[in-house]
Amino acid sequence: MSPDMSHAPLVSIIVRTRNEERWIGLCLEAIAKQTYTRHEIILVDNRSTDRTVARARRYGVTLVEIDDFLPGKAINDGIRASRGEIIAIISGHCIPVDPHWLANLVARLDDPEIAGVYGRQEPLSFTPAADKRDLAITFGLDPRIQVKDSFFHNANSALRRDIWQRFPFDEQVSNIEDRVWGVEVIRAGLKIAYEPTASVYHYHGIHQDRDISRAQQIVQIMEGLHGPHADMTKIAEGAIRVAAIVPVRGNSLQHDGVSLLGSTIDYLTSCTSLTDIIVSTDCADTADLARRHGASVPFIRPAALSEKYVDIVQVLTYSLTEMEKTLGIFDLVVVVEETHPFRDPGMIDDMVSLALDKGFDTVLAAKPESRPVWLDGEHGVRQVGKRDFVPRALSEERAHLGLMGLGCVVRPALLRAGTLFGEHIGLHSVRHPLASVEIRTEEALQRCLPLLKHEPVA
């Protein structure tokens, strides 16, 4: 039974953002599930160039746009646009851990001597080791009242409006506006509270990485005591949209009752991580086939995008643009082609989990290759990768054959920028012995029919 909020003070939640498309949906979805329901959300956005604002509008936010970012001024601008007696502040890339975050955060403000309260910050699985260490040391499990300590952190904090009117945030400093504010209120004889039950996930830390190996040792001990850090796949479950795009040029290959596109769609339907399956084609017959197997075909691709000189990234960028017009914004895109029909059950779901849990921009299906690899080009033949004769089982060096058509998970912002590969790339080593087999002709399809007819779909 939901608590009676009719007499509860209104809380204005200030969310500062700039290009937080990756996180803002998760942040606002968690806020929408709070038990303390009497709140409004003020989004202070520093002219994001991605889909941050579009995604946030779905949650009924009040938008405040700013051109030049100064942290204290951004918060003050948000508060000036708000109505609440209590102000909560959360970064656009922080995610409340549970539905009691807001209630636990503002409860400490009943004490008039407490100027402000800040909550716990927990790392994610892919947070750098030094940041995990610093977060664990800084944000412990015991609540405390700070009488002399002026530490305060606006990634996750709250204060009363009357306090803000006396002590607005400094609008000139370029950073640590929260600690500057903390000094002022402590000097005025007020107190600061730390409330660990008001916790958020924060993917980066409060300090720069230092000695990585030492930090990893400390993190290993901490995780042994307190358990592993948050699994991003579980956090994102039910809160993100993952679309598979199957690009097909012309008529899909079919023979003797076997349809490569149909088998591909049937496989994708078995994937629990996918919310949408989109076939991008220039052919009406292929579109009809896709729909019969349960895929969505929201557009017919222009024939010009099927010319031999057009690369796959152009096709995918166009497809994503058209998808977003009618289907909305996606968190991840999975690219698969019908020409690679041999996938292990669960492969796509594993790749999506890898992208989430490790924070990768791109995850590519790849076949490990420990044998020597040779490139033949305009400068002749040259060897890459392994250059010794150490037995393959003992070699520490591995080349990987990228199999994008088999599976590639990518963040939409990269596709919009015209590329598939970001700075942080993960490889999913495929196990299926036929994973690298590619079928692009009817002859190849006929030769593979005996294998395809006995190949399980899921």
What do these coordinates show?
It comes from Denitromonas iodatirespirans. One of its GO terms (biological process) is single-species biofilm formation. Pfam families: Glycos_transf_2. This protein starts with 10 loop residues before the first strand and ends in a 6-residue tail after the last helix. Helix 1 links the parallel strand 1 and strand 2. By secondary structure, it is an alpha/beta fold. The radius of gyration is 26 Å and the shape is elongated. The strands form four sheets. Strands 1, 2, 3, 4, 5, 6, 7, 8 and 9 form a nine-stranded mixed sheet that branches. Strands 10, 13, 14, 15, 18, 19 and 20 form a seven-stranded mixed sheet that branches. Strands 11-12 form a two-stranded antiparallel sheet. It has two domains: 220 residues, Spore Coat Polysaccharide Biosynthesis Protein SpsA, Chain A; 211 residues, Alpha-Beta Complex (Spore Coat Polysaccharide Biosynthesis Protein SpsA, Chain A). Helix 5 packs across helix 8. The chain is built from 15 helices and 20 strands.
